[in-house]
Amino acid sequence: MDPFEELERMALNAVAEYTLTSDAEPSHDEIERWQRLFRYSYSDAADQLRCNLARARITDEHWDLVRLEKEADGYDREAYEHSMQNGQSTCSQPNDQAPEAESSGRGNNAVYIFKLGGPLAEPRQIQTAAGLSSFPNLIKGFGEQGISSFCRVDTMAKRAIEEWLSREQVSYKPTFIRLSKARKELSSASSYPRLGQDSTLPQHRLSCGESFPAQDEYPVWYFFYGALADPVFLAGLFSVPEAGMTLLPATISGGVVKTWVGKYKALFNEPAEAVLQGSAFRVESREHEQELLFYETEKYEVVRCTITLSTGEAIQGCTQEANEPPWCT
Question: What pTM does this model have?
Answer without folding.
Answer: 0.55
